[in-house]
Amino acid sequence: MNNSNTESLEGQLVDQHYGLVVSQAIRFSSQKSDLEDCIQVGLIGLLKAIRNYDPDQSKFSTFATVCIKNEIFRHIRKNKQKTIELPHSVETKSVLRSDNSYSPKDSFWEIVPECLTDKEKLVLKMKVENYTHREIAHRLSCPKNQVKHIIRKVINTIRRYNKHEEEEDTSL
Fold first, then answer.
1. Which of these, 31, 57, 126, 137, could form a disulfide with 144 (CB 3.0-4.6 Å)?
2. pTM score, two decimals?
3. Which residue ranges form the domains of the chain, and what is each CATH number?
């Protein structure tokens, strides 16, 4: 089979299975802006599936779905953002300046209580930067369960701290 026939067949298969790519991209994209990227990456996975498919192994749609998912997962892991989404109540919290004007808090670290230990702050910083529990545990030379415990403790401390701040604000 010549190259133009192969490309034509690939194009037909891509057209026929485009919906499969879109459905997987929708499942794994967290924001609308990510959807287009996930579709493009999913199409790469579909092309890999078309080129590597063995009809004796499985149904094409099953094989293609796995290839598409793997390609999207690889893309998401590679491009993991190093940010954290703050709850709406934190994003809209304001501080009063000396000139009585308000400005939104622009730093995540402004909501972190001073009472956290250095180890807790390090774990929080690494978690905010999207390190996995395993990576944090390795860096701290401790079990993964201890990292989970520290994270739960930090979350509870931040909740108590913010609740206490809100109570003070309402009493003024």
1. 137
2. 0.46
3. 3-78 (1.10.1740.10), 93-171 (1.10.10.10)
